[in-house]
Amino acid sequence: MNRRLLFAAVLGGFAIFAARHPLALAGTRPSREPGRSVWDSVYTEAQASRGDSLYKATCVKCHGATLTGTDDGSPLTGANFLGNWSGLSAGELYEKIRTTMPPDKPKSIPRPDLADIVAYIFAQNHFPAGSKALSDSAEALNAIKILQSKP
What we know:
Blueprint: H1 2-20, H2 22-26, E1 36-37, H3 45-58, H4 60-63, H5 78-85, H6 90-100, H7 111-124, H8 138-142, E2 144-145
Parallel strand pairs: 1-2
């Protein structure tokens, strides 16, 4: 009799836990949607200006002076770029650039410079500038969603 009571108590506790935490049974955690987007003024004009100089020194040869792409590099502005990146985070864009660019020397651009280059890309895609610079922190960048259209 005691075993049945113990079994029922454990089973009841498990059922309560499962009802309150349904994803625990699936082995997943609820995803945390970024609370900000590129439309929330996530970089400064001064930062984008620094990014312009850095872009011209390291990126222009492949992506072109107007960021529209070349035979050697994809566009970093416009419908194709935004269509590919919309819904992803600024952190994903930052990491793609950090780990693959420039193609002849990946991972060679210092982290703060990369944030400036991403700010420049955002400026060229007509996202608004603000009063706080784009961070080079993965956590901060991952909290910013790239959205093609203003919400």
